[in-house]
C-alpha cells in the first residue's frame, strides 16, 4: 500500500515496503507492485 507524506509543501508517495519516495502516485504504485522490500534497487530496474 502506498502512503502519502508532506515535505517542503509537496505531497510525496512512499512505498511501504522500502520507504522509497515518489512524486507520482502511479509511479509509487508501479514500484510497490514489484518491490520485494529487501533490495534497494527494484528488480525491474536491474
UniProtKB/TrEMBL annotation:
Residues 13-40 form the C2H2-type domain. Transmembrane segments: none annotated. PROSITE patterns: ZINC_FINGER_C2H2_2. InterPro entries: DUF7128, Znf_C2H2_type. Residues 25-46 are annotated as: Disordered. Residues 35-46 have a biased composition (Acidic residues). It comes from the Archaea. Pfam families: DUF7128. This is C2H2-type domain-containing protein.
